[in-house]
């Protein structure tokens, strides 16, 4: 009997509750305690101040299943969606945390016991990494857990050394990988082919061991802590005997729904995966209060929505389709996230308005892009074309880059940014005079208009903006 994704989430939380961990609900995707962070991108985010010692909680062990978004900001997996078996813009991170309580030995023991005893993964398919000089972790894996030495890989890069920032808590990590089999391309961690999807990283154990000072010195923390993160969808894929996250129960349901609303026939189509991924990040972002806009978090949301709409268009969708996936998502995740159900109607409405608005310029923009591509020499779409699509048709640059990539092309990002900068300067100039001019126009219409104040307006400026 195969475990569902929902059951796997529960079994993780149950296991750690049994080990005296407090089960803590997921926090919002909008970090409450960190203005520098775009979105919550790991389980530890809501515990940051506890780790730093500034906040006290009535427990020193916690476990959670944290909703995360990695699109924009430091961790950005948007470009990976549709191209790897393991990345989403939205995913759930299962984690266990020790706030100055247990350290390496128990963290490793819990993880190994959960994987090999609680959910019975075959040991021979697991591989672990340690930071190259972390002999302590190496010995725990080798001696206490009995992992054969050829399955323990020492890594010297930042992949296995975590830090919160340039200064502050930091320490080595130990990661657990699963081998999906030699028929899949990829190599073990540390090898040149590690980015392939054969050996998939499932769990990161972070040992907060030092406090790094501005001069680079590292002082052992008075209270050493543990922060771990395991992707629910990745462990679910393993438990359900499939390779790609997109083949798990939850995603199969979303993909089927996406096929229904777009009219797509081929369930393997990459665009269906992208849409199934994007409905999760968009719906959850809106549920957490983000609204589509032209800047900051809202612009990331708008970009993801427009990307999804473009993929639907590619599949032949007629009219707004994306918002229709909200109910399918609620069916899959509503039990674990009741706010999704409660806010369902609002989420649908926001998505539909966005889709309809973008739908007005999408076809025309795509036609313009096709025209340019037909006469293009080389494989780089020029910055001014990317800019025109952005400025006139509402194509975020990453959307154009996504179209380009499907044809093994790229966009001229530098050139695009230059165009943006030029426009920004022009808008600034225009703003300086134009805004005031609009005021004048308004007052011109009103009866008490007494003529331009010569000290503020010269004839030329007014002439310039008369058009
Ligand atoms: P990868 O190397 O595969 O990109 P990562 O090293 O960036 O993963 P961590 O920052 O260590 O990931 O996060 C902890 C865990 O969260 C990972 O081991 C993985 O199981 C999961 N995870 C990370 N990013 C994603 C994502 N974009 N989609 C789904 N799961 C993810
Ligand atoms: Mg990553
Ligand atoms: Mg990694
Ligand atoms: Mg990692």
From TrEMBL:
It comes from the Bacteria. It catalyses: tRNA(Ala) + L-alanine + ATP = L-alanyl-tRNA(Ala) + AMP + diphosphate. GO terms for molecular function: alanine-tRNA ligase activity. Its main location: cytoplasm. Its EC number is 6.1.1.7. Its cofactor is Zn(2+). It is found in: Cytoplasm. Residues 3-467 form the Alanyl-transfer RNA synthetases family profile domain. Binds 1 zinc ion per subunit. Keywords: Aminoacyl-tRNA synthetase, ATP-binding, Coiled coil, Cytoplasm, Ligase, Metal-binding, Nucleotide-binding, Protein biosynthesis, RNA-binding, tRNA-binding, Zinc. Catalyzes the attachment of alanine to tRNA(Ala) in a two-step reaction: alanine is first activated by ATP to form Ala-AMP and then transferred to the acceptor end of tRNA(Ala). Also edits incorrectly charged Ser-tRNA(Ala) and Gly-tRNA(Ala) via its editing domain. Consists of three domains; the N-terminal catalytic domain, the editing domain and the C-terminal C-Ala domain. The editing domain removes incorrectly charged amino acids, while the C-Ala domain, along with tRNA(Ala), serves as a bridge to cooperatively bring together the editing and aminoacylation centers thus stimulating deacylation of misacylated tRNAs. Belongs to the class-II aminoacyl-tRNA synthetase family. This is Alanine--tRNA ligase. It comes from Pseudoalteromonas viridis. The gene is alaS. The chain holds residues 2 to 468 of 867 of the full protein.
């Amino acid at each position: 009997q195969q475990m569902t994704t929902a059951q796997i989430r529960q079994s993780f939380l149950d296991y750690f509750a049994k080990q005296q961990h407090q089960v803590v609900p997921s926090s919002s995707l909008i970090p409450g305690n960190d203005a520098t962070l775009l979105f919550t991108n790991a389980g530890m985010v809501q515990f940051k101040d506890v780790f730093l010692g500034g906040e006290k909680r009535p427990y020193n062990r916690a476990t959670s299943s944290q909703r995360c978004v990695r699109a924009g900001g430091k961790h950005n997996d948007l470009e990976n969606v549709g191209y790897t078996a393991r990345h989403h813009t939205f995913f759930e991170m299962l984690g266990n945390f020790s706030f100055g309580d247990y350290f390496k030995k128990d963290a490793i023991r819990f993880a190994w016991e959960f994987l090999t005893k609680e959910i019975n993964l075959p040991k021979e398919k697991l591989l672990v990494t340690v930071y190259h000089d972390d002999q302590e972790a190496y010995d725990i894996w080798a001696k206490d857990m009995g992992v054969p030495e050829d399955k323990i890989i020492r890594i010297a890069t930042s992949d296995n050394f975590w830090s919160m920032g340039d200064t502050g808590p930091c320490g080595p990590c130990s990661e657990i990988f699963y081998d999906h089999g030699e028929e899949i391309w990829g190599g073990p961690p540390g090898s040149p082919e590690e980015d392939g999807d054969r050996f998939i990283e499932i769990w990161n154990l972070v040992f907060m061991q030092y406090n790094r000072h501005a001069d680079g010195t590292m002082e052992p923390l008075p209270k050493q802590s543990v922060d771990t993160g395991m992707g629910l969808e990745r462990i679910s894929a393993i438990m359900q005997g499939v390779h790609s996250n997109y083949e798990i129960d939850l995603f199969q349901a979303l993909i089927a729904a996406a096929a229904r609303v777009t009219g797509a026939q081929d369930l393997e189509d990459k665009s269906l995966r992208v849409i199934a991924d994007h409905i999760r990040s968009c719906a959850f972002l809106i549920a957490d209060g983000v609204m589509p806009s032209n800047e900051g978090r809202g612009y990331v949301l708008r970009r993801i929505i427009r990307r999804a709409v473009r993929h639907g268009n590619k599949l032949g969708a007629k009219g707004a389709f994306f918002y229709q996936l909200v109910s399918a998502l609620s069916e899959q995740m509503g039990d674990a996230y009741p706010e999704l159900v409660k806010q369902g109607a609002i989420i649908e409405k926001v998505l539909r308005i966005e889709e309809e608005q973008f739908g007005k310029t999408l076809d025309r923009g795509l036609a313009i892009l096709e025209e340019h591509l037909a006469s293009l020499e080389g494989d780089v779409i020029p910055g001014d074309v990317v800019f025109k699509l952005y400025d006139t048709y509402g194509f975020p640059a990453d959307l154009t880059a996504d179209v380009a990539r499907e044809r093994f092309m790229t966009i001229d990002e530098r050139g695009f940014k230059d165009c943006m900068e030029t426009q920004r300067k022009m808008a600034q100039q225009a703003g300086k005079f134009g805004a005031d001019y609009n005021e004048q126009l308004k007052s011109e219409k009103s009866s008490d208009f007494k003529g331009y104040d010569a000290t503020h307006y010269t004839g030329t400026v007014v002439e310039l903006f008369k058009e």
